[in-house]
Amino acid sequence: MRTPLACAILAASVGAHDLARAEGGLFEDWEVSGYARQHLSWNLENPYLMDTRDPDGLVGAGRRGDYKYDLSMARTILKVNLFKDFGGSQFNISGRVAREVETNYLKDLQQAMDNNAASDLFSNRRKSRVDLMDDVYNSEEIREFWWQTDVTPTTTLKLGKQQVVWGETDFFQSLDVIHGYDNRIRSFLEPENEDVRKPLWMVNLVQRFDSVDGSLQMLLIPGKLNRARDRGNSFDLEGGRWANNPNKGITFESATFGADVPYNFDHKEADMDDLSYGLRWKGMAGEWEYSLGWFHGPSTNPVINSNPNNPLGVGDAASGRSFVGAYKGDYRSDPDSTVGELIFPFVDVFGVTANRYVESIDAVFSTELSYIPNAPYNVGVQAGEAGGCAFFPGFCGIIEKDVVKTMLRLDKQLNLQNYLGTSRPSFFSAQLFNTWITNFDRDDEVVNSAGFSGRTKEHSTIATAILATNYDNDRINPSLALGTDLSYGGSFVIPSVEFAYGNHWRVRAEADIFFDDKHQKRALQGFNNTNLFGYFTGNDQLSLRVTYQF
After folding, report:
1. What is the pLDDT of residues 156-206, one digit of tens each?
2. What is the 8-class DSSP label of residue 44?
3. Which of 171, 283, 379, 419 has minimal Cβ neighbours within 10 Å of its Cβ?
4. Beta carbons of 445 and 455 less than 8 angstroms apart
5. H or E element: which one contains 208?
6. pLDDT over 50 (residue 5)
7. Which residues pair with 42 in a beta bridge?
8. Separation of alpha carbons 416 and 425, rounded Å
């Protein structure tokens, strides 16, 4: 299936490529690259869409429709990169345009959102609705716009909008905290992180010290040069196709069920106009490659700053949980119409990474450790159930905890040709992630995600593995990704295969299957004991991606 827009984009990309190669053309001597892509996905389960109005117009929350096997996404993307090397300096600009077809599934999501926004069960307020197509899915943006030059033979300066990746992994963020990720379009599933990472305007200076085989990187990110919404991770709080279960059709930035929770980018401890900065030393110690890093900037995930007036709660005496109140005593949203606000408090992240080749097992071992003092967490589990803290778990306030995150990874080439018939050795990678709340106290009722999360444990551990194979001289490339939550239960399985046709065409098909144990299934009955894989309940899908790269 290819939309008319996809055909138009493909023709435009081919024309741009020809223009770049034409003698005397506008972009003569420039390198032009990019891709045109058509991305389709289908539901393999029936997602829960909450709607406050039945077909007769009566108010009363319930499930809307059956969407199993429906087309959930028809997304067309054009990305173009222009690069030129001027000898002592380089210039790069990259732009991307995305357009979607409003499928029947998306139309019903939008209708549920409209009905819910107009039917606030707790008051007669009515807020302006979010338009999923215009506000979330369709976009045009400059992805990168930077100039790089060698100030001295050992000093490189890079100015402009760019991406900087720290650490040994960017699957679960530990030291890779400079940029946020946009998880609203296709949550946690895109194989190329550079496509969902949010680029930032910054000053990036690297000084090499060749005598000790090391380099020092210095980053300066002026807050006022970057849009506030480009900082931190973006999750589907608009109620779209990747809203956490069971919140599809519920927009948390408007008064739906009383859950009016806007973003506040001006909080005194989370002001996006403030400067961010970081330092990283990278070097060699024997056979080990290592790095030491420090970054000061907004936390990667938002937390709920509770309304100090707690307007919709009825008290917390039933649970014994004290109401923490506004974070650092600052609340800037309307206390008469909101139950909380989303903020990204500024934190310091200190990290160490190391990797080396281990000859005895013929593999590459990598590790990463980061320490985040005073990391913000939402609190309140029983209080939310008892009707306090605006009826939502985690809305009792924000407390700070010292957190240590660790990652261990092993990458190895496996000779499976005789067993699987592959054309060359296969790539295998296994990773183990752990988050440790060092000053943990169960009575604090810390939650992983405010609104419906289960109680956080002292240690949260996730294991993942991937096996990538190759057939027919890399023309057919199947892979299998697995992951399991060792602390809260649940797992995922993602089988995929990519077909390569010449230098330009790539076709990728995959199934995204999520499993949750019996504890996760309470997501629709009180919200408790729901953690990472419980959020994805009902989101199994089949995905097809056709790319023409140039």
Report:
1. 999 999 999 998 876 777 889 999 999 999 988 888 889 999 999 999 999
2. S
3. 419
4. yes
5. strand 200-209
6. no
7. 71, 542
8. 6
Residue 193 has which token pair? Answer: 């992180």
Residue type (1 letter), 243:
A
102 Cβ contact list (under 8 Å, min separation 6): 110, 133
Kindly report the backbone phi and psi dihedral angles of residue 413, in degrees, each rounded to the nearest multiple of 5, phi listed first: -90, 125
Contacts of 129 (CB under 8 A, 6+ apart): 113, 114, 117, 251, 254
Would you say 259 and 253 are in contact if contact means Cβ atoms under 8 Å apart?
Answer: no
Phi-psi region of 248 (alpha: psi -120 to 50; beta: other; left: phi over 0): beta
CA distances from 159 to 86, 154, 307 (A): 16, 17, 40
The three-state secondary structure class of 67 is coil
Interior angle at CA 6, CA 13 and CA 31, nearest 5:
15
Which residues are within 8 A (CB) of 134 and not within 5 positions of it... i.e. 6 or more apart? Answer: none
Q: Distance between CA 332 and CA 306 in Å, rounded?
A: 11
Cis peptide before 311 (omega within 30 of 0): no
Q: Which amino acid is at 402?
A: D
Instruction: Express each pLDDT in 290-337 by its tens digit.
Output: 999 999 999 999 999 988 886 444 444 444 455 678 899 999 998 888
Q: Are 302 and 272 in contact (CB under 8 A)?
A: no
Give SS3 for 62. strand
Q: How far is Cα 275 from Cα 216, in angstroms, rounded to an integer?
A: 20
The Cα–Cα gap between 313 and 399 comes to 19
The dihedral through the CA atoms of 145, 174, 398, 534 has a sign that is positive
Helix and strand numbers (H, E) in the chain are: 6, 24
Q: Which class for 192: exposed (0-12), middle (13-18), buried (19 or more C-beta within 10 A)?
A: exposed
Radius of gyration of the chain (CA): 24
Of 139, 436, 112, 45, nearest to 248 by C-alpha is 112
**Under 8 Å between Cβ of 10 and 528:** no
Name the token pair of 300.
């990667």
The answer to whether the predicted template modeling score (pTM) of the entire model surpasses 0.90 is: no
Using alpha carbons, list the distances in angstroms from residue 317 to 308, 386, 389, 407, 445: 17, 9, 11, 40, 15
| Cβ(25)–Cβ(525) below 8 Å | no
User: Distance between CA 544 and CA 382 in Å, rounded?
Assistant: 43
